[in-house]
Amino acid sequence: MTGLLKRLGIELPIIQAPMAGTSTPAMAAAVSNAGALGSIGVGAANAASARGMIESLAGLTNKPFNVNVFTHRPAKADPLRELAWLEALKPEFERFGAEPPTAIGQIYTSFVTDEAMLELFLETRPAVVSFHFGLPSPEAIARLKAAGILLFSSATNLDEAEKAVAAGVDAIVAQGYEAGGHRGVFDPAGPDSQLGVTALTRLLVSRVSVPVIAAGGIMDGAGIAAMLDLGAAAAQLGTAFIACPESSADQYHRDALFSPAATATEMTALISGRPARCLHNAFTTLKDGALKGLEAPDYPIAYDAGKALAAAARAKGEGGFGAQWAGQGAPLARAMPAADLVRTLVAELQAARGGKEADR
Ligand SMILES: Cc1cc2nc3c(=O)[nH]c(=O)nc-3n(C[C@H](O)[C@H](O)[C@H](O)COP(=O)(O)O)c2cc1C
Description:
With about 350 residues, this protein is α/β, with parallel strands linked by helices.
């Protein structure tokens, strides 16, 4: 057992990734009850609905779990850019007999300004709170730590990891470029180092003083074993859990995961305004069509339009405009209950660990 697992009070070096809109309290509870760390993502929720999710999860398990928030810099409105975006999307809406919204805005609040969410965490005290897209204020970090909550932060390069360690986080989620969903980059306007999970994990393990959790493209026990061999304290898997019955992914997302689209994931900022890895679908192809050459409105303002288009298309039976986030390991996805998946991962991890050099 590594120091991190001991501090967490869990047996297995496996973390089910928080996935706003896809992970659920039932999924996180099944994973935590199986001895790994389950997570829920409340980044797109307000404090009232986050309370409902935390209470429902706490009612399903006595084991530790992780609650994840988005810590992006609040969006800067740019009415002209937003109008141009909606104008460009108009023909896409019209294909489904709909009109684009007349205005788009910030559909959710960053944790960096969400006092009610902070108070909720201090009251409910989940074992872990994790940050994606940056860090909250030193005061918020100090209060969460004083409440005995362990803190994780995503990092996509050494600089972000060093900032997170200096701020006092307890572990770094090393998010490789392979990973499904949004890149955790602190500054989406800056250059992206695009480090793969192997180089990033190794770099952070050798340079930072806190445990490193590897994330990105890890789909089975052999992948977890490889990350542990690199010095990671645990592996965080997102895409591997999308097809579990406990997931709230819609049928279109599930079907796409088991289609040829799974072999061609793409990094796109068109859906939400921030780079995210998605299955190749009708929305990602707009980069060569309606949205060619245009700059997306700030995150999450663009997501307001993206979600409206997905809903208009879905109402007419076209599911390919959804935010079908998935990592590069998507073709290795399996559909099974979350607890069975954890047990399968453990068996595979043991088999990988027991494998002899001579067998290679
Ligand atoms: C559908 C989906 C939603 C995600 N949502 C979040 C989220 O809300 N918060 C977060 O920190 N990471 C989120 N991620 C990223 C994961 O934390 C993790 O970095 C990623 O899943 C690892 O790569 P993998 O998908 O290849 O396993 C999401 C990933 C996916 C696939």
